Known about the structure:
This protein is mostly helical and 263 residues long. The chain contains twelve helices and no strands. It is globular, with a radius of gyration of 18 Å. The relative contact order is 0.12.
Amino acid sequence: MENTHPVLHAYCLNDPSDKASLVRSLREVDINSARETPTLSAMRSGPGRPERPELIDATKVPRRSPHTTAGHAALLHAIAHIEFNAINLALDAILRFDGMPYPYYRDWLSVAQDEARHFTLLADHLQALGYAYGDFPAHDGLWSMCEKTSDDIVARMALVPRTLEARGLDATPLIQAKLRKVATPSTLESAKILDIILADEVGHVAIGNHWYRWLCNTAGKDPVKHYAVVARQYNAPRLKPPFNDSARLLAGFTDEELALMRI
């Protein structure tokens, strides 16, 4: 892919390790020059992915328990798959939507780099357990919403970072509690990795919240009322408790929004 913009090159790479390594190496790049390449045409087939893992319906993904090495590895694999998709999601947010202020692109490049670091931490820990990314089936729910919102940046910001990815703020402490209860060196290491991921994800959701509100304010829309509109339009999943209120508040959700989630 000679002469391809580096962000687009990273987006199109199939090998997860190569993708993560390239993304982590990117510095401040001229996002505008990406518009000089046939970006959307190159993105039409979607981001580069490996042949594995096998993608199956979310309802058919087996439950994962960290009480066995295989179960622990499967749990890590599920999180690694989310992080791999999140790399592509952040790169897609850069490449797909033009006309935004430069800090928007800088923010999503930073998110992509964090997600690449998370994926690498998880892949390395999987390898220490004797497994690799691709060894277990996975589902594609996160990327499906990315595809559905490909023509609507307001819906993308509303429903990917601040809805689907924000669910990780709620789920991560519960997963960590299970890992720490098993209390083997490997499960405790996994819990430490999730500490890093959770802290970073608060910032990522905050970025989604910031740009969603910026877009709503620019268009003269009420962010709370408009969220209900796009959630209905794109059939967003209904969120269920328990909610990590402290993390959500740090990520920029309001008390009003937290109350509405409980209705």
